[in-house]
From TrEMBL:
Residues 15-147, 161-298 form the EamA domain. SUPFAM superfamilies: Multidrug resistance efflux transporter EmrE. This is EamA family transporter. It comes from Chitinophaga flava. GO terms for cellular component: membrane. It is a multi-pass membrane protein. The lineage of its organism: Bacteria, Pseudomonadati, Bacteroidota, Chitinophagia, Chitinophagales. Belongs to the EamA transporter family.
Length: 301
């Protein structure tokens, strides 16, 4: 009985520790990407970030799992990596280069809506509940109030076109995630490493096509930019992933799902406190509506 209580206490401590890590680390990566892309273009940054993170994880995965994926498993993981990392994450890096990081985090917070909509339309055909549907409507209402293109915003200092880019990234991320259980994938760490490396190669291709002279910007990278880059690699990609992976296997799904509405709060706070991003009354009200919608979407989980 004493051993059982001790084990239970250790699991609770680990859960809180990993949950806190996901809250803060994933919430902080938005600001990290904004700092790192001040000098280096976003596609090149993403390529460099996931090349290093994927390489490190591939070595760790092989040492721990001792498996070599089949050709089919490798291609499946690479395909998912292009959707999740190459498009999903890279579009976020592009958006934070032009928009406040906290607002981009709010756009990404609508991810559960894309998951449920795409799952209903193309995968499980399971219709969302009334509560979930209400959450989706509420979430998109908050985003419309925040980015309303028909309203006159004198203080808006950023373009609206990155919104479409983030939406595309969200759809690709949700699609890739929904396809994972339906594909023959390698073991967990090896799979994630392949996904990162495939996403990295895709990002390099995008950079070669769209970012002329991108490699020439590396010598201009500031000390702050390099710190942000290594933070994204070592903390954002490796520690953040490991924490989230542990939670998905050991914590209640409804508890793990809370990262979806805590991350934007962390991102907005850090953007305001460190990145000098403005949070006015409209941003505050719209953000509260969006997060309330995400809470309703994930409540049943």
């Amino acid at each position: 009985m004493i051993i059982s209580e001790k084990t239970q206490g250790n699991n609770m401590s680990k859960t809180l520790l990993y949950l806190l890590a996901v809250y803060i680390i994933w919430g902080s990566t938005y600001l990290g990407m904004k700092i790192a892309t001040k000098n280096v273009p976003p596609f090149l940054l993403s390529g460099l970030r996931f090349l290093l993170a994927g390489g490190i994880l591939l070595v760790i995965g092989y040492l721990k799992e001792r498996t070599i994926p089949s050709r089919r498993q490798f291609l499946s993981a690479a395909f998912v990596g292009v959707l999740l990392i190459g498009i999903g994450n890279t579009t976020v890096a592009l958006a934070v280069h032009y928009m406040p990081s906290g607002l981009v985090a709010l756009l990404v917070a609508a991810m559960p809506a894309w998951f449920m909509g795409l799952d209903w339309a193309f995968f499980s055909k399971k219709r969302p509940s009334v509560l979930t549907s209400l959450g989706i409507v509420l979430g998109f209402l908050g985003l419309f109030l925040l980015f309303n293109p028909f309203a006159h915003h004198e203080g808006r200092s950023f373009p609206l076109w990155p919104i479409a880019v983030v939406v595309l990234g969200n759809i690709c991320w949700a699609t890739g995630s929904l396809m994972v259980p339906r594909l023959q994938m390698p073991t967990q760490m090896t799979s994630t490493a392949i996904q990162m490396l495939a996403g990295s190669i895709f990002s390099f291709l995008l950079s070669a096509c769209l970012e002329e002279g991108a490699w020439n910007t590396l010598p201009d990278m500031t000390h702050q930019g390099w710190l942000a880059y290594f933070y994204l690699v070592m903390i954002g990609s490796l520690v953040g992933y490991t924490s989230y992976s542990w939670l998905t296997r050991n914590a209640p799904p409804r508890l793990t799902a809370t990262y979806a509405y805590v991350n934007p709060i962390v991102a907005m706070f850090l953007g305001w406190a460190i990145g000098n991003e403005v949070i006015d009354s409209m941003v505050g009200i719209s953000s509260a509506i969006v997060i309330s919608g995400v809470v309703l979407m994930t409540l049943k989980k």
